[in-house]
Amino acid sequence: MESLEGGSDGISQMKQTQEPLICGLPDDIALFCLARVPREYHVVLKCVSRRWRDLVHREEWHAYRRKQNLGETWIYALCRDKFEQICCYVLDPNSLKRSWKRMLELPSCSLRRKGIGFEVLGKKLYLMGGSRWSEDATDEVYCYDASNNTWTEANPLSTARCYFACEVLDQKIYAIGGLGLNSSVPHSWETYDPCTNNWNSYSDSNIIPEIEDSFVLDGKIYIRCGRSAVTSHVYAVVYEPSSGTWQHADAEMVSGWQGPAVVVDGTLYVLDESSGTRLMMWQKDIREWVAIGRLSSLLTRPPCKLVAIGKSIYVTGKGRSTVVVDVSNAGNMEGMMVSSSIPELSSNDEIISCKCLAI
């Protein structure tokens, strides 16, 4: 009797896999239709049937949406709340409400860590390293799959580190510098390759601790460290993939790198927070920094983090207050810049990092 029941289950599963995604349509046509459902409704698609749920989780789904330019980018903000615990919020820029929503709880062991790394690769978010006052730096890595809304433990860093820079270049995560359990950590970096699921370590004496910001421009990684106590100059280095080495960055460009930076269509923008909030642009053809305009002090709450979606820069500050600036319409002006805002003034959460993830 047990064997008959087992055989029956197998037959039912086989029938299920043979059932079309949409009755009366070939699966390729069904995929053409379903892939055009907005991202905010993907959770509803997964409730329709097991086949639809499995489809939304599969790489085929994400590859098809990318190929057809159907991917939708959401912003993820890693924050620290009034209880000194980290939390994560997500913003759908295309939503009519355009409000930040709290994500599924983060891994409990990471909640009170500081100096934690935060990066996006493909459809996954990564929490890396960090430390607590009673604990040394850790090599732990946790991965959030945005397609199925779950956290899992991932392959650990090769070196325990905290307060380090994170960037993605050539589909690999770079964990750069920071502090750790030995003196070599500040002068090292490592890369994660999702194809091999391995971290590889490297070292370079040009990397120093106290990294404050980073970005990728023209296929190179730039990191900015704290000001020199002796010269007051900003120290920055650039990673050259062709040689696998870090070199001193262009001094003229670095001189204007006075705040959080973001790259839009190959152009570098920096938010100068030294006196109010002023958006600056590096014009590499004439090698000068140009002031784009000021943002209203009523809308921005420094310190801020920047991300870009298309031609729009999202400036997110304390309490997740967010200002959106369309740089395609921004010109060189002396007054306030025209922008839209997403206020979150009831909160005082500190913004640790902001990243974009497209599905």
TrEMBL record:
InterPro entries in the cross-refs: F-box-like_dom_sf, F-box_dom, Kelch-typ_b-propeller, Kelch_1, Kelch_FKB95
Top-level taxon of origin: Eukaryota
Signal peptide from the UniProt entry: none
Domain F-box, chain residue ranges per copy: 25-64
Record keywords, A-Z: Kelch repeat, Repeat
CDD domains: F-box_AtAFR-like
One Pfam short name: Kelch_FKB95
Protein name: F-box/kelch-repeat protein SKIP4
The species this protein was found in: Durio zibethinus
Native organism taxonomy: Eukaryota, Viridiplantae, Streptophyta, Embryophyta, Tracheophyta
